[in-house]
Amino acid sequence: MGTVTTPWKQLLLNSLNSNSHLRHSTYFQLATISPSGMPANRTVVFRGFQETTNKILINTDCRSHKIEDLNHWPFAEICWYFTDTWEQFRINGNVDVIDGSNADPVKLQQREKAWFASSPKSRLQYLGPNPGLPSLLDQPTQDSSSLDPSAGPVAAFCLLVLDPNQVDYLNLKSNERITFSRKIANEEISWNSEKVNP
Amino acid sequence: MGTVTTPWKQLLLNSLNSNSHLRHSTYFQLATISPSGMPANRTVVFRGFQETTNKILINTDCRSHKIEDLNHWPFAEICWYFTDTWEQFRINGNVDVIDGSNADPVKLQQREKAWFASSPKSRLQYLGPNPGLPSLLDQPTQDSSSLDPSAGPVAAFCLLVLDPNQVDYLNLKSNERITFSRKIANEEISWNSEKVNP
Questions:
Q1: Is the pLDDT of residue A140 over 80?
Q2: Contact across the interface for B75 and A177, Cβ inside 8 Å
Q3: Is B139 a member of any domain?
Q4: Which residues form the Pyridoxamine 5'-phosphate oxidase Alr4036 family FMN-binding domain (chains A, B) (predicted)?
Q5: CB-nearest partner of B135 from A39, A92, A196
Q6: Does B136 fall in a domain?
Q7: What is the pLDDT of residue B1?
Q8: Is residue A177 part of a domain?
């Protein structure tokens, strides 16, 4: 039996392909809720899907506020706008936070895989000072020589895995909008899609 | 006494200017929280500042979910990424929702001003069917002839006014990050700024 790609995932792969000449096509905005109940929103980088699933991978720093947010309330909504094709994907779901203290060896392996899949330059930022804290004038800057390329993930490295629950697709060129909702029946996941007004 | 522009506002005006050749430079992502406590995130269009203030204007449809969200919990965070200059502004604050039933005549005037400042084409979308509801096949499409250009705002037209409370500026080219926080002392508003680690 062949694998059928979920309709929204196919649309998203098409958009990634059509916008791949733009560096920022893999950037999207991730909204979370802070422990004090305030909305938070920041740009993050799409690191691909987890193997053949619909789950979206994001690398982040354990010391960033979003980790606090997600440990407190593990739900997020992605807003991903493709500037060349005028398409928007809003993807909400729950997020699994995988840091080095995770008890599941399979998840630790996924984190390690994500670490080695990222460039030496992006690995380097996890060795830098605590993000968001006051910047000290005489902070030593890290250079790539301080990082052994074969060394595994550093403590600050965290993998986020967003498992989509609903996807809202909007095409501003054709003025079409489709809502995709996950349905679970008899332990089988399927997706309903519905054309809605833009 | 001359008016001094708030430092973060000047940075934002500079970014808007440097990225003005890109249609999407006035688009940003607005995160809110739904009445059921879930994060929501969507792209909206920057409609300028309210007169000489720091308040950010957004036009929207009264029938969209964000109105429900904001009526329930009037806080939002903007994430605005400028794709050419690699700058990000995260702007949080509380949001005033101004629809046609507002009791304040000054606010109604602001709503009217926003209506007439928007193009006939964008006014037309407020005459369309309820956004997000199932799309009917034989829906009549609105054409510009159905709208009198001198007529005031239709019922579905809503003005959002976001009053910034904190601004986080990140420059990915220079790797600099600055946090701006509003301070109120003796009924005077001032802004603190601090360099923080990216």
A1: no
A2: no
A3: no
A4: 6-98
A5: A196
A6: no
A7: 45
A8: yes
CA-based nearest distance A31→chain B, Å: 6
Are A160 and A57 spatial neighbours (Cβ–Cβ below 8 Å)? yes
A to B CB pairs, distance under 8 Å = 132
- Rounded mean pLDDT of A25-36? 98
Rounded (10°) CA dihedral B10, B15, B16, B18: 120
| Ramachandran region, residue A175 (left: φ > 0; alpha: ψ -120 to 50; beta: rest) | left
Alpha helices in B73-192 (DSSP H): 105-117, 120-124
pLDDT in tens, A53-107: 999 999 999 999 999 999 999 999 999 999 999 999 999 999 999 999 999 999 9
Quote the number of domains for chain B: 1
Q: Residue B24 maps to which CATH number?
A: 2.30.110.10
Question: Which residues between 93 and 132 in chain A have a beta carbon less than 8 angstroms from any beta carbon of chain B?
Answer: 125, 128-132
Distance from CA of B50 to the nearest CA of A (A): 23
Q: Is residue A11 situated within a structural domain? A: yes
Q: CB-based contact (8 Å) between A177 and chain B? A: yes
pLDDT for the residue A63: 98
Contacts of A130 in chain B (CB under 8 A): 197
Beta carbons of A31 and B27 less than 8 Å apart: no
pLDDT of residue B143: 72
Give A17 or B189, the one with higher predicted confidence: A17
Extract the residue ranges of chain B whose pLDDT is less than 70: 1-3, 138-142, 144
Residues of the domain holding B12 = 7-129+145-196
Q: Does A90 touch chain B (CB under 8 A)?
A: yes
